[in-house]
Amino acid sequence: MLSQEIIDTFNNETKGIYKSIYETQKDYFIEKGTNDSAGLFKWLMSKGTSIDCYIIYVNYTNSNPLININNKIDVIRTIFYATLKPFQSQFFYWTLLLLIIHKFNYRKPIIKLILYHYIIRTIGDIIDGLGGLLNTYHSLGKDGQCISELKYTEQHPLKWTLTRQFNSFFWYIGEIIGDWYPLLRTKAVATDRVSKFSIYASCGLYNLSKLSIPISQLFLNPTKLYTNDGIYNKNYVDHYYNYYSCILVLIIASSLLYDITIYIVLKKKLFSKQTREYDFLNKFRTISEYRIVVSAITGVIGLPFTLITAITKVILYNNEMKDLNFSIEEFRNVINSVQYMIIFIDQILLIRAKNDSSMESGVSSGNYYESNSNSSNYYDSKLNSSNYYDIKLNSNVLNIIFNSYNINYIHNNNNNNNSNNNNKNEKMKNTIYI
C-alpha cells in the first residue's frame, strides 16, 4: 500500500478514486511474492507487478488532461497505422505491378509465391503495429523507482507473446517463401542430380535455420520475465539473446551456403564463351539466371559483416561490455531486401524479354517466314530464359544472312530505283538490331 505521505501529494481526482482502483484493479497485478501462483493467462492479462506504481501513473495522467486526450488519440492512431501496414510495405507496389502485368492471374506458380510472400509478411507487420497499443507495464526498478513506460518489448508479457512468439512465425515463414524463388529459377537449369540435391539441401537447411528463431522465442517464458520481487528479469532475457545470437550465426552461415550453391550451379551456364563478350548490364537485362547470381553475390559479400557482429555478441556475453548496442540488424535486413527485390526485377525483365521476342519475331516473319520458326522457340511458356542469349544470337545471324541475300536481289533487279532501294535497305538493317 502507498504511504500517507505519497497519497497526500495526489491531486483531488486521484484521491477520490485510488481506493476503488485497489478494489477493482488488484487482480490485474502480480504483486511481490506471488509469481509462483500466477499462471500464464494471468501474466498475459496483467497490467504490471505493482498496483502502487499504476496509481502513481494514474495520478500523473490526471494532473494534465491533455495526457489522457493524447493517449486516446494514440490508440486511434496506432490502430489506423496498423491498417496501413499492407500499403507501407516495400513490396506492395512491386506486387501490385506484377499482378497488373499478369492480369491478376493468380494460378501462376510464381504469382502465388509472390502473393504468399507479401501477404504473410504483411500480417506480421499488422500484428507488430497493433503491439503499439501495449506501451505501459507498471513495475519497480532495481532502485525501487516505478517504471511504467516500456523500454523493451520483453517488459510486457502480452506484447512479447503477440509481437514476437506468435508474430515471428508470419515474418519468417514469409521470408522462407521468398527464399524459394532462387531455388525455382536455378533448378530449371540444373541438369544433374548432384546439383539439384545440393540446391534443395542448402535451401532446406536455410529454411530450418530461419524457423529456429520463432521456435526459440517460445522458450522465453512470459511468466519468467519478472523476478519474484516484481523487477524486470534482464539477466534471464539477456541469456536468451545470447542463444539468439548463436542462431543468427547459423542463419547467416546457411544463407551463405545457399547463395554459394546457387552461384556454383549457375556458373557454367552463365559464363560460357558466348556470353563473356557482353557487359554486365546486357547480361543482367537479358539473362534471368544472371540476376539470380547477382542476388547471391550480394548475400555473399554483405552477410559476413552481420556474421562477425553476431559472433562478437556471443563472445562478449560474459563480459562487462555485453550491454553495448552494436547490432547491425538493419544492415542484414537491407541485404535480405535486395535479394527479395531481385524477384520482382527478374519477373519484370522476363516479361519485357518476352515482349521484345514477340516484336522481333513479328518483324522477321513479315519478310522471311523461315526466321519465324526460329523465333517461335525464343521464349517458353514458363518464362525460362536459360536459352535466351543463345537463341537471340542465332536468330540475329539468320536475319542478317536472309537480309543480305534480299539486298543483293533487289540491287540486281531494280537498277533504275537505286536511291529508293538504298533507303529501304537501310531501314531494314536498322530493323534487325532493334
Quickly list its features:
single chain, mainly alpha, 2 domains, two-stranded antiparallel sheet, 2 strands, elongated
Structure characterization notes:
The chain has 434 residues and is mostly helical. It folds into two domains: 64-355; 356-432. Helices cover 72% and strands 2% of the residues. The chain contains 17 helices and two strands. The protein has helices at residues 4-8, 12-25, 40-45, 51-62, 65-88, 92-101, 109-130, 157-187, 193-217, 234-270, 273-276, 280-286, 288-315, 329-367, 369-375, 388-413, 418-432, and strands at 136-140, 146-149. The chain has a two-stranded antiparallel ribbon with strand order 1-2. β1 and β2 form a beta hairpin. α8 runs antiparallel to α9, α9 packs antiparallel against α10 and α14 packs antiparallel against α15 (369-375). Mean pLDDT is 77; it is low at 365-434. Residues 414-434 are annotated as: Disordered.
Instruction: Kindly report the spatial arrangement of strands forming the biggest sheet.
Output: 1-2
Radius of gyration, CA atoms, in whole angstroms: 32 Å
Task: Kindly report the oligomeric state of this protein.
Answer: single chain
| Count of alpha/pi helices | 17
Low-confidence runs of at least 5 consecutive residues: 365-434
Gap between N and C termini: 84 Å
Average pLDDT score: 77
Strand content: under 5%
Structural class: mainly alpha
Biggest sheet details = 2 strands, antiparallel
Q: What coarse outline follows from CA principal-axis ratios?
A: elongated
- Report the helical percentage: over 70%
H/E element sequence: HHHHHHHEEHHHHHHHHHH
E-strand count: 2
Total domain modules:
2
